[in-house]
Automatic annotation (TrEMBL):
Protein name (Swiss-Prot/TrEMBL): Bublin coiled-coil protein
Annotated organism of origin: Rangifer tarandus platyrhynchus
Region (Disordered): 1-25
Record-linked InterPro entries: BBLN_eukaryota
């Protein structure tokens, strides 16, 4: 009979089923802890990215306002200027 991946099944001794995969409860706990740390780091990066995005939007709006003021000082109308 074939296994879930199409491989031939290997007989498993009684009681050895949990030991076959090589991972015990401690290993799963360590992996879970590492995944939690990675998730925390990704959340922190996402917050920084959101903050930078907001700051860049503010800078863009400030630059647009400054450009309009310069255009008005030069006697141009905003519709005359190239975007």
């Amino acid at each position: 009979m074939s296994g879930p991946n199409g491989d031939l099944g290997t007989p498993v001794e009684a009681g050895a089923e949990g030991e076959e995969d090589g991972f015990g409860e401690a290993e799963y706990a360590a992996i879970n802890s590492m995944l939690d740390q990675i998730n925390s780091c990704l959340d922190h990066l996402e917050e920084k990215n959101d903050h930078l995005h907001a700051r860049l939007q503010e800078l863009l709006e400030s630059n647009r306002q400054t450009r309009l003021e310069f255009q008005q000082q030069l006697g141009e109308t905003p519709s005359d200027a190239n975007p």
